[in-house]
Design a protein that fits this description.
InterPro entries: Methyltransf_25, SAM-dependent_MTases_sf
Distance between the termini: 33 Å
Number of helices: 9
Organism: Mesorhizobium alhagi CCNWXJ12-2
CATH topology: Rossmann fold
Shape: globular
Order of helices and strands: HHHEHEHEHEHEHHEE
Helix content: 25-40%
CATH architecture: 3-Layer(aba) Sandwich
CATH class: Alpha Beta
Mean pLDDT: 89
Low-confidence stretches: 20-26
Strand content: 15-25%
Radius of gyration: 16 Å
Keywords: Methyltransferase, Transferase
Pfam family, one: Methyltransf_25
GO molecular function, one term: methyltransferase activity
């Protein structure tokens, strides 16, 4: 890892060294749209799925239950989170078809990490808002998609349909955890789609609280 990547890894380990033990219990109340994303993956039989920023492994476990014929892979920059994810995956009996590795979502080589050059589905759930240089994550993910594969994203939106006081309070609170909604997400996705010939579906959820995007690579 570069010096910047190592610094971010240390920061995430520091933030989540203790929080990881209660992360899933608390985050279910405000990380909205995660299960909708998983349901919308529509993984083909025997397909491969990669999560960037897999955290505690919660989403991988839910997806493994939903798609019993698929194989799953997860990358996270925090070693502390990966330890929690590995234990959770094993506890739920999915170790046989789930592989985890430490890596930076903005610059990773899945073939080196997993011996898997491309994936049918890649998803990012509330991780872009925590990644420095997050814009690099999109082309890195698209480059790791199999032809006809799709990238699925859910994250905080601009909250433009919610009261101003709510938006201000939410953003101030998120900043305490080094989380920043990516207001330019749609524009970045549109630019990468134009560059690669991929197609984009983009929707706002819960009056703008969250956004959900699907980028589909050409076959």
């Amino acid at each position: 890892m570069s010096a910047g990547e190592s610094a971010h890894a240390e920061l995430m380990d520091g933030v989540y060294r203790h929080q990881r033990h209660v992360y899933d219990l608390t985050r279910k109340y405000y990380l909205l749209g995660r299960d909708r994303l998983i349901e919308g993956l529509s993984v083909p039989p025997g397909g491969t799925v990669l999560e960037l920023g897999c955290g505690t492994g919660r989403n991988l476990i839910q997806a493994a239950r939903r798609y019993p014929d698929a194989r799953f892979f997860g990358i996270d920059i925090s070693q502390a989170m990966l330890e929690t994810a590995s234990a959770a995956v094993a506890r739920h009996g999915f170790s046989g078809r789930t592989a985890l590795a430490k890596g930076d979502a903005t610059a990773f080589d899945a073939n080196v990490l997993f011996g898997q050059p491309a994936f049918d589905r890649i998803f990012i759930s509330y991780a872009l808002s925590m990644i420095p240089g997050w814009e690099k994550t999109i082309p890195a993910a698209l480059a790791s998609l199999a032809p006809g594969g799709s990238l699925h994203i859910v994250d905080f939106g601009q909250q433009d349909g919610l009261p101003r006081w709510f938006r201000s309070g939410l953003r101030a609170w998120l900043a305490k955890f080094h989380v920043e909604p990516r207001d330019s997400l749609r524009e970045v996705l549109e630019s990468d789609c134009q560059r690669t010939g991929a197609s984009l579906s983009f929707e706002t959820l819960y009056r703008g609280y969250a956004v959900r995007a699907v980028v589909t690579r050409a076959s």
